[in-house]
């Protein structure tokens, strides 16, 4: 398409063909929210307000007031007459971004590596308390997409690991925690935003199209979103990319169909920042809130697809007022659902500056100034939960000759710049856009400023360790190895968001590949050549290739400390010195080579027109692929050692809800608020008299003549060219829906499994029981060899002590998405499902069978 046709506003035509078979069918209208009982009261309260709001008040709520036009990264308009303030939206998933006196929690990938549900929830509560304390209404996290399909994808570390169920528990428990203190959580990014390059639509190029089939959509990418909706999440952020050729922010199949009808989502959908590329189509497709409000091509000019143009679109009849009413009701219902009408704090910080005073609207050329940062300390005792997450995520991969734990007086030589704080300052790089010093998080909007960094060297110091530190990534000539030394080498791999390039990596690990940064391989090799006992500590965003050094005879121990946030030091010391046994497990597979992966998960490079990213591997990502192709990784998904050992025994299985091939019928939708569908009078959108406008600020009012012209146009015979398949008649909804998350029967427990875990070693420790389902042999549909469905972590078990864990599998866990009937189907009701329990995806010897209803240990692992 030529630039001139774009300039003429042909934005909707920016669809390149996608490969055959990948479709985003039209799905209209947007289902009204309010039909599930858990939200009835909030919808009742919201509808009382909405019924009394003017058109301009309503459109003002659905959009940000412009980029850099307020203290938060997103600031909606207000409706003060009915008591609704501007709402503050702020990043990110690991804590409050761009502020002070906050906690820099370990990111999602680290929480995922703990495999500890209770800790995931407690981390969420602490994060929520900090957002509330700063006056943030809407927390822009958790992230469960990127799912982690591409090992080099830049933002995988913001989420919980490369498996839909691990992501689902991580996301849902975080949401529960955050929302328990009254903050609206935002699950993001819907959906399949699996790489950073080409993610956004621009004037010259459409964003990348993630092309995925219906079954892959349901069984992998949508799964964690379904669980997030089931946990009552208040908001969903739509991704930048297209799905099957249709931009997420105007993809009616995605928002109206999958999210709001099938998953029964009751909250509101916001765009990612500048992901909205149209006005009317995005509203009709189910978008409820435009962020930060500006048009995407050239923000900052004070132009919006919505705000004043939404008012115009309702007056001229192109967007039914019914759609606007639903969007506003959804936003206000989420506000009431979290109790934000009761003493909710106003923002007391400014994401744009660290100064106490500054412009109130930095995006305006001339802005009034005032106090913008009040330096409110929201840290409470959150460092404790942050440290616990960092510690319990540490994943011990290799430990020959019991090299670890270290003896209290061990003589240590410590190497690598990553062991100590960034010498330029722990927050010297905006949004952590550099890899210098201890790596506590990746970069981008998912970062936060460190209040402090407890570095590994701080940890050695405060423990009074016997160590000598060489703050270099090249092997120093003066380290004087002695036979009693243990060398500890710190290495890293980093990634982040696309708007910052670090050491040649534009978000994704484009140039570093899966290698260690800063010649880490060489440093380890050099150290290993001179020292006989080497411990390698890896701070990483995801899998790294370790083949150059892993099997060297002196490399005795390897630990992934993931991304520890501010609590890198003490957490690591507690594990290195054995106060605590390591209990983390890998939230992804570690390969031996990048060629282990299917070619389709490589980063997509430049393509003429819309970059096409076709998920030809379907369900087979991460361990599902390795198992299918019988590729032995370096370390399997779920792997992690301890200083002690555990046995799994006395397993039993009991049937709870009998399976049927198709789930019982869904409940019907409940009633939703009813409003007048008449187009409101033009006067509801007129500018107020004598209003002092701020240049570039986005307002929802129209000049009187514009409003009158729009109202006049409503009578014109020329109608808006609605998308194919458009309808404004509410429907009963799909069979697979029925409640938040889908048909409630999908979440019926089919089987309870109980297993006794015993500490059979000599030290205290915690074990993780991972439950994988193997579908029955001989069914008509192909399924991955095994799939994670549940997990539990023990409390600390003393040597000899036991704990019985309860796990469960649901109807959905035993179903496949049947594309023909558009429902979850149990492929073999009486078939023999293998329910495998063990400590890792490749170490499963305990099998419960649903045919015999017995469990037995000592079985040959399916992998
Ligand atoms: C873009 C990112 O993709 C999203 O995750 C973030 O919340 C927004 N920017 C706001 O910073």
CATH structural architecture of the largest domain: Alpha-Beta Barrel
How much of the sequence is in beta strands? 15-25%
Secondary structural class:
alpha/beta
Cα-based radius of gyration, to the nearest Å: 27 Å
Question: What would you say about this model in short?
Answer:
The protein is of the alpha/beta class. It is 21% helix and 16% strand.
Question: What does this molecule look like?
Answer:
The chain has 863 residues and is of the alpha/beta class. It has three domains: 37-376 and 683-715, Alpha-Beta Barrel (TIM Barrel); 382-588 and 635-644, Rossmann fold; 647-665 and 741-856, Immunoglobulin-like (Sandwich). 21% of the residues lie in helices and 16% in strands. The chain contains 18 helices and 28 strands. The strands form seven sheets. A six-stranded mixed beta sheet has the order 1-2-3-4-6-9. A six-stranded mixed beta sheet has the order 12-17-16-15-13-14, sandwiched between helices. Strands 22-21-26-27-28 form a five-stranded antiparallel beta sheet. α15 links the parallel β15 (485-493) and β16 (534-540). α4 (108-114) crosses α13 (382-393). The longest helix is centred in the first third of the chain and has 17 residues, at 117-133. The protein is globular and about 90 Å long. It starts with a helix and ends in a 7-residue tail after the last strand. 62% of the residues are buried. The chain binds 1-deoxynojirimycin (NOJ). 1-deoxynojirimycin (NOJ) binds next to loops.
